[in-house]
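Notes from hallway chat w/ T.B., transcribed later so I don't forget. T.B. wanted the structure written out for a chain they're using in a teaching module, and asked if we could keep both sequence and structure tokens in one place. Agreed to drop them here.
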Amino acid sequence: MTECEKAAPNAKLAKAGNAVRRAWMWLGAYVAVGICFYIHFEWRNAAFGTVDEYPFFRGLALFFFAGASLYLFIKSLVRRQKAAALLYAALFAINLYWPRIGTALDLTAKAYFFSTFPEMCPEGAPKPGYRVLLCYKYWFMDSRTALVLNPGDELAAPYTSWPREFDKELFRNADVIIDECEKKHVKLLVNHVYLLEDLPEC
């Protein structure tokens, strides 16, 4: 075997390694952009109680990463770089589905955290003997999403059977009027922590 024949497989391996490294860099860039959006979201929520979603910039990032990952996926397939193509396919799938599953995963993670450390609730630590506590909330468009601690699990029952003091505790700082056409969607996430969403559909 000549020196050139020995060098050829090594060159192919080096190119494949570089392609995989570039794919990981694209994934890293996507994660970095997502973290920046997340930090800004939480900062706006904590500092001002409202959230600027910046749909134009989010859409721009979505289409940029979707287009780039699809192009690079096809390019990797043509060059038979299977590992890199797999990473680009994963980036494309994550980019498309993350807006749908990201919020659910975020709220579930927060629910686990606040169920373990209720004193860390942004809306205030629970008092001894509390029945319900609005732990975390944010506004998105015309609806509120909140995490609520309820040791007695009264929130598992229909809204009409909740104790009257629950309305005062949960909606006292609401910026919208709670009326008959307001639908309350309540879901147990973990350990007496409920997800409550106000979705006005009049």
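Follow-up for T.B.: The helical segments are 3-48, 55-78, 82-116, 164-171. Might be a good example for the class.
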